[in-house]
Amino acid sequence: MAASLCGHDAYGVTTTAQALRGTKVLVSAYLVLCVLTLAAIVVFRNDSAIVNDAVWTRAIIVTLSAVLTFAFTSRAAKGSRKGYLRLRIVSAVMVVAIAVIIALPGLFPMWMRIEQGVCGLLLLAVVVVVNGRRVRATFSH
Questions:
Q1: What residue intervals traverse the membrane (predicted)?
Q2: What is the radius of gyration, based on Cα positions, of the chain?
């Protein structure tokens, strides 16, 4: 694992941790939302109008991706270029996957489409930040 980058860049960033501070907040919110959603699914598991097999499958996949995204963010904040690359890839792929889920008619209940929309907005913000000049400049050294 690479150490945090030192020195100031053109944006006044001194470390990768500093550059990714906002990203860590966004990814943490994404992870918390996914875990809370999975907990709600467990609570309402006997109500087939709220929870079906597709909801279970999607919630488990999204929660696992949130755990991975959090791990990649943590590694990137410590200066890992591989962690940064993985964060960029996973966050972009998940935004596309979430857009497909929201667009599919009838497979998921409205509450899950809304929850996935919130997840998608959080991850879209992550994609914008991690692909922005400030963060890319931090990892270009």
A1: 25-44, 56-77, 89-108, 114-132
A2: 17
